Model the fold of this input.
Amino acid sequence: MTVNTAVGPVVVPGAPLRVIALDTDVFDSALTLGIAPIGAARPALDAHYPEYWPQSRTAAIAYVGPAGAPDLATIRSLRPDLILSNQMRDGDRYDALRELAPTVLTQTTGAPWKANFQLHAQALSRQAAAAAFVGSYQRHVSQVTAALSDAKVSGRKVSLVRFVEGGGIRLYGRQSFPGVVLSDAGVGRPDAQNVDQSDFEVPLDQIARADGDLLLYGTYGDPDRSGANTVLASSAWQALGAVKAHRAFPVDDQLWFEGIGYTGANYMLDELQRFLGA
Done:
């Protein structure tokens, strides 16, 4: 079967089973479609695979190194029949990867996660299962949207903040995975984040741009080295309306900012409904 990827047509085996997932979006796609990768990369500062997946689904998945710098010898030893990733993460080693197995890359990750999922499903020969999951998600979105409307909270503006080790304070716009999920649920965004971009960083003296009716924040890496502990203890953070109203909540970073797939999105919809009290 030929799949049209970001780097051109790639011939992939029918119904591959020995799949390597080199980023978090393809990890979610494969597991959602019923295929546990034989090996997977993780973001460098993540100590384990995402816990929104039961350990029974992930315990046997071999670790092949950090996302963006996987160990090719480890991948070779697993004898894969398909490798999944994206150009942003692995474009510079595409030729080396395709020597190990047919390699399917999307252009990027994050905001185009729904279109990417369709490409992953085609490469995995799981198009029918993909259609079922898309339909299920759309029904879930309709249920959550109706519940938020009934509870009269759909007008609340939801802020997304991520503390990133080595990266500072990051605010997320509409063109991001969590931004798309919030948009699907019909909730608003604070003005500073109601922008057509994925994310942007702000210094602590501009933390007011993180305010919202509801504020959800994740931490990637160590809470001290990411600045999370410093910011959360600061007077500027304590002055935010959402914080003063006790409507600022920590969320699982691996779910909200790294999940990037339909299973992750379904869990996020449930959490959003709970956070908004609907």
